[in-house]
## 1
Amino acid sequence: MTSLCLGSKFRMNLSNFHEKGLVIYLDNDHELSKLVLLKPEILVDIIIQLVTKQPDIIHQRGFRHDWKLLHNEGMLTKSLLDIILSEAVQENKEAITVFLEKYDLICPLAYNIPMYSSENGKELRPAHFVPSMLPIHVSADEGAPLWLDRTTDKKFYVFFKKFLPEPLFHCLLSRAHKNRKVEFPHSQPEMFRDVGKFWLSPRQPYRRKLIKDAKMIEVTFSYRAQRM
């Protein structure tokens, strides 16, 4: 990680290196434009540590319950994130966290989530969620339905041929969660790895759904025709 205070020509060169994937430099971001990530693979390494088997250091330092919360619910505590970052970088952990958030690999929770209680009575309060590690939504037969389909609903579909839509869908979940903080801050979203319900206004919910087998994303808006 390098801090910048350089001229426009050098910044242009950094932008070219960024486009080629050699570094990460975001000149259009006021906060991150002051930093250059010289090893972009660090972000990948951190996510690999989050999604793979529990490392020994987690068990040794008493973060087993934090780890279980992450892998069962997709919720990430600050203490667990700190220890994972400590294994990957020695400094600028805050900046690395911002990069992870910028690329929607993790997303800060924008609403008050209840405390989780572990088996030993320890209270855990998540600070982020990891979109790719959220649980899959159960069917309507197994739990409360996320969305009640109506004949008046408006549906839109985006089809994918060249690549799988799952990574993009996880980014969309993160972006929708961030946007709701601005558009409708008092709403309570419902998010799963394959579907999410959000609100554009108190009377305008919408659903984003990943239909993996069909390689498409479905967006459904609740619609009621206005009476004349």
Note: The mean pLDDT is 80.
## 2
Amino acid sequence: MAERTEAPTPRHLARLRRRGQVAISAELSGALGLLVGVYLLRAWGSDLVGKLERLMRDTFNALARQELTPAVLQARGIELALWSMALMAPLLLGVMAMGVVSTLVQTKGLVALALLKPSLNRISPAVNARRLFSWRGLVEVLKGIGKIAVVGFVVFQSMPDHITRITVASTLGVTEGVRSLGSAVYQIAMRVTVLFLALAVLDYAYQWYQFRQSSRMTREELREELKSAEGSPLMKSRLRQM
């Protein structure tokens, strides 16, 4: 098999882009989404906890005045779940929006409809097994282990600073206890997020390098590409250099 030693032409890169093949880091999108989520929890956390507490209180007060039949419990459970989802919606939408924006920025606004086409390779056990045991699969496993290690390290390092606050929070009422505990959790979460962002930047650099390597062409592919675009002065110049 011929080695892919030649830098890709703009035409080749454009063709790959139409197929949805661009440099993108899911880790970067995830880290930015986590940052937004932590910030929104910091900004709205107290208000959210208060509303959830009132919702729970109203639900149990209503149940105390009713006969507890399966139908009543089911109706109240569904109502509680829907209201809880409504209260959490701004937070979830904020995280999702950040993920979408981050992806669009990385791909320069690419919307690849080609990726929506069904492909047997996506569900092929053999293909997926090769991906799992490939170098890229190993990197993904190491990234997962690295993230777990980061969380464990930060929590372990932060616990001595917050153990008193966490202990006191258990003796307070629900609202005050959650608010006190939330402050400690926020500080730990921010440390984790900053480290995740640093790892995500490195991952984006790695993904960009991998994409550039995988998009390289063989000399034969390059000759055919240049011959088919001989009208371009840039292509003519590059063809003469070969």
Note: The longest helix spans residues 174-214.
## 3
Amino acid sequence: MDLEPKGPLPHQIYWRRRALAIGIGVVVVAIVAAIAILVVSNSTGGDTKTPTSSAAAPTPLPGENPEVKTPVQPPAQQAPPPTPTPSAAVTPPPVLKEGDDCPDSTLAVKGMTNQPDFVVGDQPKFTMVVTNIGLVACKRDVGAAVLAAYVYSLNNDRLWSNLDCAPSNETLVKTFNPGEQVTTEVTWTGMGSAPNCPLPRQPIGPGTYNLVVQLGNLRSAAVPFVLAEPAAPPPGDAPAPPPEGAPPAPGN
């Protein structure tokens, strides 16, 4: 085969034309091949679909971390029913028989004043009453050694007792029939006192006070009474002062 170019022009011109034609052909083939590759790759990518979840995940609440899983707690086992504990038998209190000692629950104590109002200088009389409120006759010591009257201020300050300056060892065992009462009367001189009767004793001034009666551990309700300031005597009627060195009048 004769590949030598023939023509009126120089050989170099024909060789250049051939090289240019071959180069253009190669470029066209490369472009066509690139277009074909792009078309094939696009068609393949369009057929591939990304799988989507069937349901969207719930929106986490504020403060929740969706990546932290709460451990599943196993169901709690049902506790066995408690075993009943046998209770100890309640022993009833002994039945009070006639002639037995009176327990506190069968007695009531109260105090009374001979009048509701007094004047400083008076000597009030207090009555102590013990009553059998039970259903059976019984006995109890109500002597002066265990039965006492007290005077208190409204602030509950102890001011006087009949046993402070006149203590007694007297016993008086009394048999009470149901509803029966025993009364004892004491007189108060209006002076203050304390256990063992320390001296000097001070007079109690005007005010409102409470009388309380006590038998052993039994205490009565408070009974109020008033000590008033004495009225001023009219001019010329003032009593003469006691002589110097005269001893005070005896009493509680």
Note: The longest strand covers residues 207-215.
## 4
Amino acid sequence: RRLWWYLLGRDGRVAEDLGLLDLPTPNVTMSGGAELPLNLEDNDLDPNMKDLPPPRKGWTRILSSLANIRICQTWADLLQLSWSNPSSPPPFEARDRIVAKLVETVETLIKECNPVIPMQRLTVITCRFIVRKLDFVTRQQWEAHHHPEQQELLATEETLLEALGLFEEGQHLLKDELLRPYTWSARSYPQYHLMLFILWNICLRPRRSCALRAFKSVEKHVKVMEKTGTAVFRGPKWTIF
């Protein structure tokens, strides 16, 4: 179960980087008949056991993966809904309900995490960040479906500021002292989508009060990514997702 859902999550991540997320994803592809993994530690499992133990309550090393699975399922549900009837895009309320359900599910999963413990802190921060990013990206996709011939409607100062806030929030994670041992993970999750959206927004409407701030943030991010690509990080190599 863990391996299957992990591969599906990585497949979605690659699709995002390559700009393939506009393709409809049937639900059968997202499940393949595999049930969701249980919230268990590795030492809870034994090859000789006949029945699985009950799931643990609270944080485990797989909790982030469980949250990521829910996020991947939500991506698939939203993509399928958005392409269900190309001539009549679904209402924004339908998207809002699906995203709200995801927020509730993820918050339930992480509610017992202790933000003072670095690994649990990372789980809370990254899960909430990815959910917020999904909310932002899918909202823009919904706008694009409703106004396919007016893509410039997405290039508003409001959307630019929201994207910039998310983009900079990701950069602030690198400054968190408790998360310093996990700085290596930044190289695995560069924020290409947000960065390109910000640059596209500015190119379309360059005379913005926050344009200089946006360019500085992008330049800073590129420099950090270049540095993390060559730096040797010391710390626990804990698999986040």
Note: DSSP finds eight helices and no strands in the chain.
